[in-house]
């Protein structure tokens, strides 16, 4: 993430009705308690496209992450431990830079939940409007996904929740989003697409997936892929799930380049479109005012899906 993304907490958007507050002075105290050798490092809030965590840069080499919404404390810490394990595993196989888990900190200083610190990853968050025809970035993402697909996940089951198995269980969510999006997106076309996509069968096999490969988690420098963020949910999932990045970033010719480069079957490619729809459908209405960047991403991805010949 670039240094230019610094902002004050007062500038950070309120995205959730139950959003937790965390300020730099609290972060300074929590960091000093967890790692006394880090005490005195400057703390800066980071404006990101993320919707789950508030991010603070601690010195030049550490990123501290704090959940934005309340959770049951014991379950939350268990989830952070699981994310730390997954991030460490992903780092070992990822061909570009990714965060290294450093610690899980305790609640305190007025913040009610455990939190995490990880290594800072340099790079600029990819602008989804700027790379629609980028052959270099398409090729870098082909190499990334091909590498992840080579990782041995034999014996690893789908984790049992979230995206990455069958599309049909997301029907209630998609229908709710369609109702909330009338007059905002082309709901008739998206509904027609979804009616077919939701019937696709579960994948025959699994591969290691980032599971949230959106532009906000993709870092570039000079037009090339240099890093990934938010790797704590990386797990065995539908190989088509990470294809969402092609719909988020690229125009039709570059999407076709990705499809051919990964030798995706017609069914796999279509499932990838289904996951992109599931991911994008809620972004516009939910983040219309609170996170315009995410809302714009939802619009552009849904427009690509609507204009496709799926």
> How many DSSP E strands?
10
Give the total of domains. 2
CATH architecture of the largest domain: Alpha-Beta Complex
Radius of gyration: 19 Å
Strand content: 5-15%
Chain-averaged pLDDT? 92
Secondary-structure element series: HEEEHEEEHHHEEEEHHHHH
Given this structure, which CATH class of the largest domain is correct? Alpha Beta
Q: How are strands sequenced across the largest beta sheet?
A: 1-2-3-5-4
CATH third-level topology of the largest domain: Aminoglycoside 3'-phosphotransferase, Chain: A, domain 2
- Cα end-to-end separation: 34 Å
Overall geometric form: globular
- Overall SS class: alpha+beta
Show unreliable segments.
1-11
Query: What share of the residues lie within helices?
Result: 25-40%
Largest sheet features: 5 strands, antiparallel
**Number of H/I helices:** 10
By CATH's scheme, which homologous superfamily of the largest domain applies? Aminoglycoside phosphotransferase (APH), C-terminal lobe
Structural write-up:
Helix content is 39%, strand content 14%. With 310 residues, it is an alpha+beta fold. The protein has two domains: 3-119, Phosphorylase Kinase, domain 1 (2-Layer Sandwich); 124-307, Aminoglycoside phosphotransferase (APH), C-terminal lobe (Aminoglycoside 3'-phosphotransferase, Chain: A, domain 2, Alpha-Beta Complex), CATH 3.90.1200.10. Strands 1-2-3-5-4 form a five-stranded antiparallel β-sheet. Helix 8 packs antiparallel against helix 10 (292-307). It is globular. Residues 1-11 have low confidence and may be disordered.
């Amino acid at each position: 993430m670039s240094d230019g993304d610094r902002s004050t907490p007062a500038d950070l958007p309120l995205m959730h009705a139950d959003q937790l507050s965390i300020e730099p002075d609290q972060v300074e105290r929590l960091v000093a308690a967890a790692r006394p050798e880090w005490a005195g490092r400057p703390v800066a809030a980071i404006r990101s496209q993320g919707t789950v965590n508030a991010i603070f840069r601690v010195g030049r080499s550490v990123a501290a992450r704090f959940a934005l919404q309340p959770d049951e404390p014991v379950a939350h810490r268990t989830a952070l431990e699981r994310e730390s394990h997954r991030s460490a595993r992903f780092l070992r196989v990822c061909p570009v830079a990714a965060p290294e888990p450093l610690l899980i900190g305790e609640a305190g200083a007025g913040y009610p939940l455990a939190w995490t610190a990880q290594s800072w990853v340099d790079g600029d968050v990819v602008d989804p409007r700027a790379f629609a025809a980028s052959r270099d970035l398409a090729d870098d993402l082909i190499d990334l996904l091909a590498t992840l697909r080579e990782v041995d996940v034999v014996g690893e089951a789908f984790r049992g929740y979230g995206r990455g198995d069958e599309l049909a269980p997301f029907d209630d969510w998609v229908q709710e989003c369609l109702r909330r999006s009338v007059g905002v997106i082309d709901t008739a076309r998206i509904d027609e697409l979804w009616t077919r996509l939701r019937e696709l069968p579960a994948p025959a096999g699994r591969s290691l997936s980032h599971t949230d490969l959106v532009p906000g988690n993709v870092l570039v420098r000079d037009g090339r892929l240099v890093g990934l963020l938010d790797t704590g949910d990386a797990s065995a999932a539908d190989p088509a799930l990470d294809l969402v990045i092609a719909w988020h970033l690229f125009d039709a010719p570059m999407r076709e380049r990705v499809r051919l480069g990964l030798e995706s079957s017609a069914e796999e490619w279509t499932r990838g479109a289904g996951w992109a729809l599931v991911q994008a459908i809620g972004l516009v209405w939910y983040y219309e005012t609170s996170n315009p960047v995410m809302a714009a991403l939802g619009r552009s991805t849904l427009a690509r899906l609507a204009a496709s010949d799926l």
